[in-house]
Amino acid sequence: MKTLRKVIKWILIVIVCLFILIQVKRPARTNPAVDESQTIFARTQMTPQVAAIFNRSCVDCHSNKTVWPWYTNVEPISWFIVDHVNTGRKNMNLSEWGKLDSGRQDRKLRQICDEVTDGAMPLSTYTPLHPGSKLSPAEVKTLCDWTAAERARLSGTAK
Ligand code: HEC
Fold it and tell me: Diameter of the chain by CA atoms?
């Protein structure tokens, strides 16, 4: 019994030391500067309802205006979340929408509707810690109606 307790104690000490050790090399949490004239909000004809959906459910991973809660500074969570944000931004950065040519904007608009219709976005790792970020069927429709209208406008077929 006594040796078992000793072993458990040492295992705990090792775990605590490892936890402290991995805090040393945290990945950088960045928020690059935003040129407001290049954002999706400035470059498209967006309704306040659509802007609210993006702001509530997407901008933390798909813009340069990420809100970083305290736990994103704790390893190994930090590593996991910083990676998600960096990959999210690489796939689609709503703060740098103006950098895309109209063909790529069109493709991203289509993907936005596809991803939310499939329920793939916002990521399921995000929604539990951000109550209210999940989209209702009505909000998915609002988003898809808007992407359709915006794509028609881009291709010049809007009425
Ligand atoms: C927790 C972070 C996170 C949130 C929140 C999030 N995304 Fe993503 N998103 C990602 C990551 C990571 C990728 C790239 C990897 C992947 O496809 O899973 C991605 C990829 C995408 C892509 C590109 C898919 C492709 O085929 O290239 C689109 C479009 C997208 N997200 C839209 C959205 C929309 C719209 C929202 C809000 C309703 C949203 N995302 C919320 C992290 C996130």
Answer: 81
